[in-house]
């Protein structure tokens, strides 16, 4: 119930206005969001790189309303791509297709994405397409497979709470597409998605094994210690090297686990979001994990 409420509030304009304008909540958001500027994300990336952790840079923002907004987002992504090699950062980027204009025009999105991928290929930067709500799943898979025919430096995300995910992974693995595996952070109906955590976790474990056995450098994105132990057991049992995959976690979440995995010799990448459109992202992080919500409340009470 709490999770559903928070996910609904992520779309509430009145709550958004309150949180964004409130000095305390803006400050607290910096635990989970690097800042509103690319330079903020660069500083966070340098700190993580120094600790042996790579980064996925994510410019927050989605569902742009017109061509100008989509082109502006594309330009901002290209700035981040240029900066990665210029600043000597160990990073790649994550993008949302709706930020590139998918809601405005499919062709506009294709054109902007091709510009972005061309720049990323020139700079040797990998690009991962974030998965959005289920209404975009099929289009995201199709776009990934379409662009994979032209560019090797593109991958996408699969959410294990969707029933369809096993089939999607089979299609992507067949084409050698890199996949980031996540549980999923949107509110979905029971006719298309698992509603119970144990079912989502079991599907995650099943799909994780498929990717580790057959995938192209998959990203296992979870903070769940039970699933992390399952990964370690599986790769140990089947002789899969630590260099064949990477773990991924979110900025500001379970830093202790991030450091431990690096110490144990695993590849670790942290998803670093930045930008002014941070409110929906923050609310999804609250919905995902009660500990995040308690962190916000405790800091508000102390302020």
Layout of strands and helices, then pairs:
Blueprint: H1 2-9, H2 13-21, H3 23-29, H4 38-50, E1 54-59, H5 67-86, E2 91-95, H6 106-122, E3 127-129, H7 137-148, E4 154-159, H8 165-174, E5 178-182, H9 197-214, E6 219-221, H10 225-237, E7 246-250, H11 255-263, E8 268-274, H12 279-288, H13 290-302
Parallel strand pairs: 1-2, 1-8, 2-3, 3-4, 4-5, 5-6, 6-7, 7-8
Helix pairs in contact: 1-12, 5-6, 8-9, 9-10, 12-13
Question: Explain this structure to me?
Answer:
This protein is of the alpha/beta class. It has one domain (34-277): TIM Barrel, CATH 3.20.20. Helices cover 52% and strands 13% of the residues. The protein has helices at 2-9, 13-21, 23-29, 38-50, 67-86, 106-122, 137-148, 165-174, 197-214, 225-237, 255-263, 279-288, 290-302; strands at residues 54-59, 91-95, 127-129, 154-159, 178-182, 219-221, 246-250, 268-274. α11 (255-263) links the parallel β7 and β8. α1 (2-9) runs antiparallel to α12 (279-288), α9 runs parallel beside α10 (225-237) and α12 (279-288) crosses α13 (290-302). The chain is globular and about 50 Å long. The model is unreliable at 293-303 (pLDDT under 50).
Counting H and I runs of at least 4 residues, what is the number of helices? 13
Strand content: 5-15%
In order across it, which strands form the biggest sheet?
1-2-3-4-5-6-7-8
Rounded to an integer in angstroms, the radius of gyration calculated over CA atoms is 18 Å
Distance between the first and last residues' Cα: 28 Å
Order of helices and strands: HHHHEHEHEHEHEHEHEHEHH
Domain tally: 1
CATH class categorisation: Alpha Beta
Choose one word for the global shape.
globular
Largest sheet: 8 strands, parallel, barrel
The CATH architecture would be Alpha-Beta Barrel
The CATH topology, please? TIM Barrel
Which runs of at least 5 residues are low in confidence (pLDDT < 50)?
A: 293-303
């Amino acid at each position: 119930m709490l999770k559903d409420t928070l996910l609904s509030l992520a779309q509430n304009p009145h709550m958004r206005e309150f949180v964004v304008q409130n000095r305390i909540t803006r400050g607290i958001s910096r635990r989970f969001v690097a800042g509103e500027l690319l330079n903020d994300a660069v500083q966070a990336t340098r700190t993580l790189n120094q600790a042996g952790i790579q980064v996925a840079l994510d410019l927050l923002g989605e569902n742009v309303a017109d061509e100008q907004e989509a082109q502006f987002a594309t330009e901002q992504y290209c700035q981040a791509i240029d900066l990665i090699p210029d600043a000597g950062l160990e990073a790649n980027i994550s993008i949302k297709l709706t930020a590139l204009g998918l809601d405005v025009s499919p062709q506009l999105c294709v054109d902007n994405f091709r510009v972005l991928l061309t720049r990323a290929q020139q700079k040797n930067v990998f690009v991962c397409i974030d998965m959005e709500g289920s209404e975009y799943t099929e289009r995201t898979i199709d776009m990934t497979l379409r662009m994979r025919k032209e560019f090797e430096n593109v991958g996408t995300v699969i959410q294990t709470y969707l029933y369809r995910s096993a089939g999607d992974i089979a299609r992507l693995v067949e084409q050698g597409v890199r996949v980031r595996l996540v549980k999923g952070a949107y509110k979905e109906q029971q006719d298309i998605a698992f509603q119970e955590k144990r079912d989502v976790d079991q599907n995650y474990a099943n799909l994780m094994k498929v990717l580790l056995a057959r995938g192209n450098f998959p990203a296992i994105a979870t903070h769940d210690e039970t699933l992390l132990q399952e990964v370690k057991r599986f790769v140990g049992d089947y002789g899969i090297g630590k260099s064949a995959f990477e773990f991924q976690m979110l900025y500001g979440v379970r830093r202790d686990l991030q450091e431990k995995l690096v110490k144990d010799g695993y590849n670790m990448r942290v998803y670093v979001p930045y930008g002014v459109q941070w409110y929906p992202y923050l609310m999804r992080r609250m919905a995902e994990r009660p500990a995040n919500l308690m962190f916000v409340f405790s800091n508000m009470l102390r302020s």
